Amino acid sequence: MYEISLPRPIKYGFQQKAYALALTNFCGDTCRAPTPFLLSSEPVMHPETRKYNQSLAASDQGICALLAAEIDRALPEAENKIWHAHPVWFLDGNPVVGYSRLKNCVRLLFWSGQTFEESGLVNEGSFKAAEARYLAANDVNTKDLARWLSKAR
Question: How far is the C-alpha of 130 from the C-alpha of 118, rounded, in Å?
């Protein structure tokens, strides 16, 4: 029996099922995928986002890793890339949410955040953006974040 190696876990249930079916159709009982890859349901952090996070101080890495994981979980269909030197998630080609390291904190920015009418977000600029700032990972209220991400769609 041959074991197929994958560069990273397959993210979502429908992809897992499609991969398993394709693998079975391709090689029958003569090969199999490694179990952890087929059982992974957690989103995989984009390599450039991981690289950005790793360039930060340890305390900021914790904040950014938490934000990236929560964003990926809430917006699995979003495209994540580095845009203007910071991780940003896009829906249908439009920036929705991103974060960046400022002088004394990590800023989470929602491009249309002012329309959310949420007390935990502060207006940013003269357009519709709103932000939250964090000094530590335990400052991130994941329930608020999940609600904001659902409004970002």
Answer: 9
- Sign for the CA dihedral angle at 58, 59, 63, 66 comes to positive
pLDDT in tens, 7-58: 445 444 444 555 555 545 455 555 554 444 444 455 688 999 999 999 999 9
What stretch of H or E contains 2?
strand 2-3
Enter the pTM of the model: 0.73
Q: Give dist(CA 55, CA 109) in Å, integer.
A: 20
- What single string gives the DSSP state of each residue in 80-130? EEEETTEEEEEETTEEEEEEEE-SSSEEEEETTGGGG--TTSEE-SSSS-E
Tokens of 87: 């991780």
Residue 129 · residue 118 · CB < 8 Å:
no
Nearest one of 121, 125, 124 to 151, comparing CA atoms: 121
Tokens of 122: 């502060």
